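To: structure subgroup
Subject: Chain for Friday's discussion

All,

I'm putting the inputs and outputs inline so they're searchable in the archive.
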Amino acid sequence: MSSAPRGEITAQLEPVVREAVSAIGFDLELLDVQQAGRRRLVKVVVDGEEGVGLDEIAEASRVVAAALDEHDHVLAGPYTLEVTSPGTDRPLTQPRHWRRAKFRLVKVRQADGVEFLGRVGKVTDETVQLLVDGQLREVAHGSVERAVVEVEFRQPPVEELALLERGCQEESE
C-alpha cells in the first residue's frame, strides 16, 4: 500500500491540527509527520499565552488525537502522537514569542553580527523593547537574526522589572 509523501501528509493535516489546538486556546508552533518503521510519528508542538503545562499538554493530546482519528485516511495506518511545548531553546521568531518572553532575559544576535543580552519589555508587531545594560532599547524584529531565552535560576532584579514596567507605561500613554 503506497501513501502520500511526508510533506503532503503534513500539509493535509496542518489545518486540521491547527483548528483543533486553536479551539482549546493554543497556537500550533510545529506539525511534523515522519515515518518511523511501520508507523508514523506525528509530532505536534503547541504554545499558549501563559505557556503550557502538563494538564494542557494532555488536553491538547486528546483533541489532536480525536482530530487525527477523524482524518485517519490521510495517515493511512498506525501512528504515534507526540504533543509537547516548544521548550526554552526555541528561537523567538514571532511577535507572540517575544510577548510570551516578557521580563525574561534573552540572548540576541542582530543581522549585523552584534550580540547582546537584554530583558524583554513591551512588544509590538514591529519592535521589541529590551533593557540592555540598564538602558531601554527598541529593536526591530527584522534586525534580529536569532534570539533565545536564557535560563535564569534567580528572580530578575526588581530594578530591571521596574524600568521595564515604566517603559511599558510610558509607551501606552
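Points worth raising on Friday:
The mean pLDDT is 89.
The beta strands are 27-36, 39-47, 79-84, 105-110, 115-123, 127-132, 135-140, 144-149.

D.
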